[in-house]
Amino acid sequence: MSDALPVPGLDRDRLVGLAYRMLGTVADAEDAVQEAFVRWYRLDDAARRNVANPVGWFAKTTSRVCLDMLKSASRRHDSYVGPWLPEPVPDDRYAVHTAEAGDPSERAMRTESVSMALLTVMETMTPAERVAFVLRDVFDFPVADIAEVLDRSPGAVRQLASSARTRIRDAGTTRAAPSTRLVAAFQHAATTGDVAALVRLLHPEVMLRSDGGGRVRAALNPVLGADKVARFVVGVLARQAPTTLTVHAGGTEPVLTFTRDGDTSGVLELVVDGAGTVRQVLVQWNPDKLGSWRRG
CA-CA-CA-CA torsion for 270, 273, 278, 282, nearest 10 degrees? Predict the structure, then answer.
């Protein structure tokens, strides 16, 4: 199969970004996009010529593949070791760039849709809700096109997208990104072992979840409470010395990376409330989900 894109104007990164939001990992997204390419090349020449909008065809086909993957038993995390978290990405390659005009909350949603926090909430959606939400609220696809992907009526698509938005609102995930100042303060307190300073940044009922996937050591259950979370983070750095905790601002929001010998061993994301207090700490340790952060 040729590496050249088969359709003028087709943006492969945009397709991967669409699939990544639906599936939660880059590897699964790449597989979905690859399957769409396979299906394109299986069409005969006449069938390809009859595709009025090839770019749209790829978006719809990739979405259908993702829907099938979300429905399959392999997409359930019942056998996963410990909490399952999505794969963080280190830059804005999959960000959806929109014009400055329009609803600021909608623009924020499209940017934030690559955060671990929002992707985690999206894991609670039904497959149809997730596909409808990504296509409608993130990529602004016409309702009629989404109805074709889901084999539902336009009214049903609107209801699915509305239900997805309700899940996100109820989870409190629609929020401003943590400020660089807050992330820097968290980093300083953690690396200096200042538990009291770290506690002051955390909500009393803060929750930490970490994903090792059974590949590396991680907390198998959520860590609850400001004091326990603060001591857990400080303890991790002490046990893994000389691991450093570094602010990384290259993506859609600042995160912290655990680094040892120049290689990234973990990514930590802070989830804040409207007052700027940390409500969740999400840590991705699974090396299978850190490929784009690691050397080589």
Answer: -30
